[in-house]
Amino acid sequence: MAQAGEAPTVARKVGIYTRISRDDEGDALGVARQRDDCERLADLRSWQAVKVYEDNDVSAFKRNVVRDEFELMLKDLRAGLINGVVAYDLDRLARQPRDLERLIEIFDERPRLEFATVTNDINLATPDGRTMARVMVAFANKSSHDTSRRIKRKHLELAQQGKSTGGAAPYGWRKDDRNKVDPEAAKAIREAQRDVLAGVRIGTIRTRWQQQGLGNPRAGTKRMAHHHVEQILTSPRLVGYQTYHREILFGEDGRPVMGEWEPINTVEEWEAVCVVIAERKRKDPGRSLARRYLLSGIARCGLCKNKIRGQNNRLWKPGSKATKYTYQCSVVNGGCGKVGRVGEPVDRLIARLVLEEQREKAAATGVPIEQQWAKEQELADVVGDIAQLLEAEKTKQITVSTLLQLLPPKERLRDELRLERSRFFKEQKQKQAKGNTADLTEDEFFDLPIERQQEIILHSLSAVIINPVGRGNRRFDPDLIDPVWRE
């Protein structure tokens, strides 16, 4: 207590930093215990704890992890909003030497900063204290490296046995039993895969899933990532394949290691989806394939033959009599700008004509889909030969030199056959996914995703010519719309 006539002592304002790497239960009890101990220490030092910086369930060892509260604490220290730090232990603050050096740099700039930990007495304001801190963090870093190496080895061993390596259940399997399929999620995955095979964009599927709350989107995010949906639809786990670091794990026999969980897809279905998505990336890298209007890029001007695209009517509102969208030849896109048409009647006409044409073709001929790939046994024989060669070298029946002479041609043939099989499955499953469009009604057609509608149109038509209507003619005239049929 201050004596009479003396100025009262102002308590130093400090921040409390708490962190725990894993909080599987999500109850934050570990960081709460750290906070209680740190507050008691601050009281003993007569410091005022003004803020708690809490990084719960956050690693300080992984380089790609950003600790938001740690970064905020450094910023507040540098700005002078707090005059010191109290932590439970030094390894709660830093397990990477670079993080410790950032903290020491601030103590260099502000020598009167306070520092304390519950478990030991280190003063970052002194050279000896900094040296000791660097040694302790170096040992903590090594300990984390050793733990990481043991965990990776354990995960590899579990993966080789076809067992789960832990973590949350992937989308498609039950949260309470990651080896059992979740029927509703599996149904959504299969439906999305059929859409992909039928020509629907990943972006369209992502939007639908987001509206329906599917796909295990990360908590707090407003939009589901494109690659997240893509990974779900192409995951090797769907067919029971075990993976390690996102790569299919192969056994000593050259065959994929099978997991102990229930599969969702057949290999044929999964390979077809993977090939289609890979082909899209190669064909249109980084380009948006989004479409809003059925005949955009398909319709052409009857005067200049330039491509016509749909455009929204800005005056249109729900319930208004104004047209919602039109097809307009645009000068901006190199056209004459003299031809335009209300969009919906044109779309309805073309859909009706195409569906009628496809019904007539279906009635005349039927094309069966082959179910079996002709070279399945050849692939199985090659995989067996590779396994025998590896076993022969392992048991010293042949030398390593002989193995390396015989193995490469077999591996090349195996890879070529696998690629050929994937293409076969892709074509087969695409036909199945697209189904018999001749059975579609007009309303069912327009209920399909826009990409699927366009694919059906382009199967029958190469273009749609929209001719000018002439002066004063406002009624829709089907005779001015000329479909160009494929031969």
Task: Jot down its keywords.
46% helix; 487 residues; four-stranded parallel sheet; alpha/beta; three-stranded mixed sheet; single chain; Rossmann fold; 14 helices
Helix content: 40-55%
Query: What is the beta-strand fraction?
Result: 5-15%
* CATH superfamily label of the largest domain: Resolvase, N-terminal catalytic domain
Number of strands: 12
What summary fits the major beta sheet?
Answer: 4 strands, parallel
Number of domains: 4
What do the pLDDT scores average to?
82
By DSSP (H or I, 4+ residues per run), the number of helices equals 14
**Helix and strand composition category:** alpha/beta
Determine the N-to-C terminus distance: 100 Å
Rg on CA atoms, Å: 33 Å
Reading the helices and strands in chain order gives: EHEHEHHEHHHHEEHEEEEHHHHHEE
The spatial strand order of the largest sheet comes to: 2-1-3-4
Unreliable spans are none
The level-1 CATH class of the largest domain? Alpha Beta
Query: Quick one: overall form?
Result: flat
CATH architecture of the largest domain: 3-Layer(aba) Sandwich
CATH topology of the largest domain: Rossmann fold
Architecture overview:
The chain has 487 residues and is α/β, with parallel strands linked by helices. The protein has 4 domains: 12-144, Rossmann fold, CATH 3.40.50.1390; 183-283, Alpha-Beta Complex (Hect, E3 ligase catalytic domain fold), CATH 3.90.1750; 299-368 and 436-485, no CATH class; 376-429. It is built from 14 helices and 12 strands. The strands form 4 sheets. The protein has a 4-stranded parallel β-sheet with strand order 2-1-3-4, sandwiched between helices. Strands 7-11-12 form a 3-stranded mixed β-sheet. β5 and β6 (247-248) form a beta hairpin. α4 packs antiparallel against α5, α6 packs across α9 and α9 crosses α12. The longest helix has 35 residues, at 400-434. The radius of gyration is 33 Å and the shape is flat. The protein starts with 11 loop residues before the first strand and ends with a strand. The mean pLDDT is 82.
